[in-house]
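Final report, closing paragraph on structural work. Over the funding period we assembled a curated collection of sequence-structure pairs, and we close with a single example.
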Amino acid sequence: MPQSFAFADTGRHTGAWNMQFDVRRAEQLDTGLAGPLLRVYGWDPWCISLGRHQRIEEIDRARTDAAGYDIVRRPTGGRAILHAQELTYCVVMPGDGRGVMEVYRQISEALTEGLKLLVPQIDIARSQPNFQRLYREPGSIPCFSSSARYEIEFGGKKLVGSAQRRIGSAVLQHGSILIGDAHLALADYLAVEEDVREQLRHDMVEHTITLQDILQRPVSYHEVREAIKSGFERAWDVRFSTLSQNDYISEEDEAREA
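Its predicted structure, as stored:
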C-alpha cells in the first residue's frame, strides 16, 4: 500500500460538489498533481445518487423536489442510494496493476478493521450475485437491496455499500456506511407502483442494518470517522497527513457551492 496518504473530512456538501471532488482528485492523482487520499464526508441536502448507468426515470422527481432532496449521478456504477444518516468514504489511490476485486477486498478489509472497533462481529460478504440478471428486476433499483462480494455485513445484512471506477491509473472507490435508518425512505422516491414500493421497503428492511441498529444507541458521525481512519492506519500501515481546507476548497468550488 502507498505509505504517503492524506486524510480529509470535507464536511457536508451538495451531491454535485461531492461527486466532482471525487472525480477531480482521481484525475489529479492520475496526472501526478495529487497523492492518495482517504476522504470522509456527508451530504447537504440529503441526496439520492444514481449509479453511472442507471436511468434517472427510475426516480420520482416530483417527490424528491417536494422533500427538498438533491439528485446526482455517481461516476461509479451500482444502484440508487439515499444519502442521509451515514458517513460516506472515498479512497483515491494508484491501481498499481491490481484488479478491481483485489482493490475492493483491500479497502473492505481496512474498513472492517476500523468498524470492528465499534462492532467486533462484522463480516465481509464472499458471494457475488448475478448482477446482469438482478438489474432487470424492479427490486434492484436500490443499492442496499443486495450485497456484492467483499461488501461489509452484520448478521447477513448489508452495512456498507461501495462502488469503484478506474480513472486512468487511479482507483476511485467510494461508499456509504449506514449510521441511522433514514436510507430506508428511498422506496418513497422511486417511480414504481405502490405494490412494488411496499416490496422494496420490505426488502431494504430485511437486507440492511445500521450501526445504531447493531449497537442499540446513538452513533455519531465523529466516532465512525475516527474508527475508519484508525482502521486504514492499522490495516495498511499508513500515517495520514491532514489535507487542510485550503487544499481542497478553491474559489471555483466556493462559487459553485453558493
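The first helix runs from residue 15 to 30. The CA atoms of residues 123 and 153 lie 5 Å apart. We thank the funder for supporting this effort.
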